């Protein structure tokens, strides 16, 4: 039968189920096909924090939200238009986010009395009328999948596992997604298990066919491709972009990259990705602990490599002494902190941006370190190159603050012209007729020479004890210590002259309120600003990439507005720095829920401040 096709400009879909239901794979495949189709998109994977939560329980729910559109979008969306709930736990954990009138696809096979009781449902919500405000599609997805795979030589358990592919096929039909990429993916993924491969492909195609033939869905939806600047694009996560940025930094500097890392959520994927790029001179070392990882990375920097270490907040705490050693020895080092919710183990799979003060001050003594934060998944690429540029040029460790939302989220990324990437010059010290002075500084950057060990004529002392100015000999002289502390601080402060001024988006020029953020809040803030402007409000926006030192024009920018709002996923860390350093009483808006901001809530906050003017 011919079905009506309805045009939409945007859709938000959330797949939710047990951690063993393959929701991340389902969401990722839908995303890859959406990217290939040409839609703009943004994703929000949401992993359970428990490694093996009991099946069918709320702590075990895994979800993947995808926002795709025929125009430029900035966030994974505030609330889903479609929720696919594979069991009662998935429904209960997510239904509150579903707006009235939205589509709700439920796998009724999992709504047994036992599974309902596990999450506190006294009655079946599918039949008790509690879901009447939604367009409910109650489907026995598991049993339909098993029936579709009856002719295949696989166990019933393996057939049931393919229900995510049936759901993916159904949603792919519903939203006109391409199918060739998913079929090819399954052929490759299960190449060594041909019967499993055939079964999963059959389940995927059965889901598509069900949508085509059933009367349960009378309408298909179509979201046309977005208009993008001409170029070659790929869908990329923040961790993948960061990894490629590190590779590019190695190529652009001519330095071998050495990663010393210890696995930790949500940074581990950087180690996995970089281990694939040996042909670009990348060496990866999975250490026995965080301290060994950063020590190896700093040792590699001493030996003339681009030393990198990756971790999350708990690992930064363990690495702090060695980061201080890098400050004292004045060697380049990239420290990647993919922030997660704390304190301690906290919420390992949830996002937060509460490590700013730790990055700024989390070392003993006066140990200043430049701090940089990317604003989107694809921006992690450029931020990594910028961090490496500063580290090498100024002979200093640099902390890059990503976060779980950026790390796991994805968006289209236009591949850059390699010729346009900045060149990073190591400028290693060269032997001369004069005695080598390892702490005689460049008058412009205040960076000391970078001498490769083993080079005749460049022998020098190294270590954590205070160095004498110029000579680098061990010194306990009080005046010398004061001099060295101030020189190291001045070196970092001087980076402000080598970074772009803070850009302000204020199209009308009439705004009296500025919204300023940092890190992964960029998308939600930008979407909220668009909403306020669309409603007739005047508001300016700025986003800070360099958090230490601040851009030189930051004080001037902030003082140009009557009120400055600083949304942060912490309790006001950037706001504290702005108040303390610039004596500007900004307005903080803070949440620590382990989730990114919603643009609608930020719109309300901004509008309230504008109305109070």
Please explain how this structure is put together:
This protein has 20 helices and 22 strands. It starts with a strand and ends with a helix. Helix 6 (163-174) runs parallel beside helix 8 and helix 17 (522-534) crosses helix 20 (599-611).
Mind telling me the C-alpha Rg?
A: 27 Å
Largest sheet: 7 strands, mixed
Strand content: 15-25%
Uncertain regions spanning at least 5 consecutive residues: none
Strand order of the largest sheet: 11-10-12-13-15-14-20
Total DSSP E strands: 22
Helical amount: 25-40%
Class based on secondary structure composition and strand pairing: alpha/beta
Rounded mean pLDDT score: 96
How far do the termini sit from each other? Answer: 59 Å
Shape: globular
**Tally of DSSP helical segments:** 20
Defining key terms:
613 residues; alpha/beta; 7-stranded mixed β-sheet; 6-stranded mixed β-sheet; 19% strand
What is this entry, summarized?
The protein is α/β, with parallel strands linked by helices. The chain contains 20 helices and 22 strands.
Write the layout of secondary structure elements.
Elements: E1 4-7, E2 10-18, H1 23-37, E3 40-46, E4 61-69, E5 82-85, H2 88-94, E6 103-107, H3 113-118, E7 135-139, H4 141-148, H5 156-161, H6 163-174, H7 180-189, H8 194-213, E8 219-222, E9 233-237, H9 238-253, E10 257-261, H10 268-274, E11 282-286, H11 290-302, E12 306-311, H12 313-329, E13 333-339, H13 356-361, E14 371-372, H14 379-394, E15 397-403, H15 404-408, E16 410-414, H16 478-493, E17 504-505, E18 513-518, H17 522-534, E19 540-544, E20 546-548, H18 554-558, E21 563-568, H19 573-582, E22 587-590, H20 599-611
Parallel strand pairs: 1-8, 2-5, 5-6, 6-7, 10-11, 10-12, 12-13, 13-15, 14-15, 18-19, 18-21, 21-22
Antiparallel strand pairs: 2-4, 3-4, 9-16, 14-20, 17-19
Helix pairs in contact: 1-6, 6-8, 7-8, 9-10, 9-14, 11-12, 17-20
């Amino acid at each position: 039968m011919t079905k009506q096709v309805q045009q939409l400009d945007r859709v938000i879909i959330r797949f939710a189920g047990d951690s063993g239901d393959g929701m991340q794979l389902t969401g990722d495949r839908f995303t890859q096909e959406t990217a290939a189709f040409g839609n703009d998109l943004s994703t929000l994977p949401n992993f359970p924090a428990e490694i093996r939560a009991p099946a069918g329980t709320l702590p075990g729910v895994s979800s993947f939200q995808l926002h795709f559109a025929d125009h430029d979008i900035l966030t994974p969306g505030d609330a889903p238009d479609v929720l696919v709930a594979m069991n009662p736990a998935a429904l209960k954990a997510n239904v509150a986010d579903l707006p009235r009138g939205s589509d709700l696809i439920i796998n009724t096979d999992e709504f047994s009395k036992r599974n309902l009781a596990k999450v506190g449902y006294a009655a079946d919500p599918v039949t008790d009328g509690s879901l009447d405000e939604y367009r409910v599609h109650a489907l026995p997805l598991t049993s339909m999948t098993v029936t579709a795979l009856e002719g295949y030589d696989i166990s019933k358990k393996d057939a049931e596992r393919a229900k995510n592919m049936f759901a993916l096929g159904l949603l792919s039909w519903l939203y006109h997604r391409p199918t060739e990429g998913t079929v090819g993916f399954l052929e490759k993924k299960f190449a060594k298990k041909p019967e499993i491969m055939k079964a999963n492909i059959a389940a995927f195609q059965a889901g598509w066919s069900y949508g085509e033939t059933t009367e349960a869905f009378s309408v298909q939806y179509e979201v046309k491709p977005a208009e993008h600047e001409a170029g070659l694009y790929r869908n990329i996560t923040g961790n993948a972009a960061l990894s490629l940025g590190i590779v590019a930094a190695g190529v652009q500097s001519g330095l071998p990259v050495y990663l010393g890392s210890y696995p930790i959520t949500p940074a581990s994927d950087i180690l996995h990705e970089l281990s694939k790029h040996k042909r670009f001179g990348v060496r990866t070392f999975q250490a026995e602990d965080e301290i060994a990882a950063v020590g190896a990375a700093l040792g590699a920097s001493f030996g003339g490599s681009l030393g990198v270490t990756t971790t999350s907040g708990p690992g930064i705490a363990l690495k702090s002494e060695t980061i201080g050693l890098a400050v004292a020895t004045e060697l380049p080092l990239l420290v990647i902190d993919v922030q997660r919710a704390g304190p301690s183990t906290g919420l390992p799979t949830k996002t937060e941006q509460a490590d700013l003060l730790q990055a700024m001050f989390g070392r003993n003594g006066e140990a200043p370190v430049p701090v940089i934060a990317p604003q989107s998944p694809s921006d992690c690429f450029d931020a990594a190159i910028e961090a490496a540029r500063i580290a090498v040029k100024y002979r200093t460790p640099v902390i890059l603050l990503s976060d779980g939302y950026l790390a796991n989220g994805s968006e289209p990324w236009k591949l850059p012209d390699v010729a346009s990437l900045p060149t990073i010059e190591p400028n290693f010290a060269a032997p001369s007729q004069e005695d080598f002075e390892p702490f005689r500084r460049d008058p412009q950057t205040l960076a000391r020479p970078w001498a490769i060990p083993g080079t005749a004529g460049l022998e020098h002392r190294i270590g954590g004890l205070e160095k004498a100015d110029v000579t680098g000999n061990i010194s306990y002289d009080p005046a010398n210590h004061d001099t060295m502390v101030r020189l190291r601080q001045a070196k970092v402060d001087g980076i402000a002259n080598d970074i772009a001024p803070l850009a302000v988006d204020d199209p009308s020029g009439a705004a009296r309120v500025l919204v300023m953020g940092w890190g992964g809040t960029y998308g939600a803030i930008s979407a909220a600003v668009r909403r306020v402007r669309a409603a007739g409000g005047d508001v300016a926006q700025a986003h800070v990439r360099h958090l230490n030192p601040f851009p030189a024009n930051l004080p001037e920018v902030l003082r140009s507005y009557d009120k400055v709002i600083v949304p942060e996923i912490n309790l006001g860390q950037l706001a504290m720095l702005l108040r303390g350093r610039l004596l500007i009483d900004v307005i903080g808006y803070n949440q620590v829920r382990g989730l990114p901001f919603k643009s609608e809530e930020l719109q309300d906050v901004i509008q309230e401040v504008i109305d109070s003017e």
